[in-house]
Amino acid sequence: MMVSSPFGGGRAPGGLPRLPTPPTGWPIGSYATYGEAQKAVDFLADSEFAVGDVTIVGVDLMLVERVIGKLSWGRVLGTGAVSGAWFGLFAGLLLGLFVNQGFALQVLTGLVLGVLSGLMFAAIGYSMSRGRRDFSSASQLVAGRYDVLCQPRSAERGRELLAKLALKPPSANP
Length: 174
Description:
The protein has four helices and three strands; from the N terminus they run βαβααβα. Among the domains are: 59 residues, no CATH class; 62 residues, no CATH class. It has a three-stranded antiparallel beta sheet with strand order 1-3-2. The chain is of the alpha+beta class. Helix 2 runs antiparallel to helix 3. The radius of gyration is 25 Å and the shape is elongated. The longest helix has 27 residues. The two termini are 26 Å apart. It comes from Amycolatopsis rifamycinica. This is Membrane protein. Pfam families: YflT. Keywords: Membrane, Transmembrane, Transmembrane helix.
């Protein structure tokens, strides 16, 4: 993944634009899932096609939030304690490496302080929500369909190859 900069101009290494730009090319295939589009591009690559001319474009984007479960004080505090423990363990290890007094004591101190901090911050955050969001969830950006675009110079050959892929029986597809 490349992050663009407002100060850079021109093109990045590899010929990709520095600023977000709409994709270019002619459609050579359209698929219901990203996996199918990825399989099509993989087939093109296996067929010695110039895949540098190909772009997969998600169309009709949706943000899907899948609810994982109900939040409770126990779950919130448990998650806060574990999160704080990891951070505290890391801080304790760093202290133990650079302080010449009791490595184990430094690690244990960092762990305990991390757990307490994690509990405190989790409790404050959850109490401030006042029950407005009593569930945990995971968000994902998905598309209604995935179009495979190709630069005009090789679009016709790409369409021909993808037509061959579509004619193969499902068990023969890679």
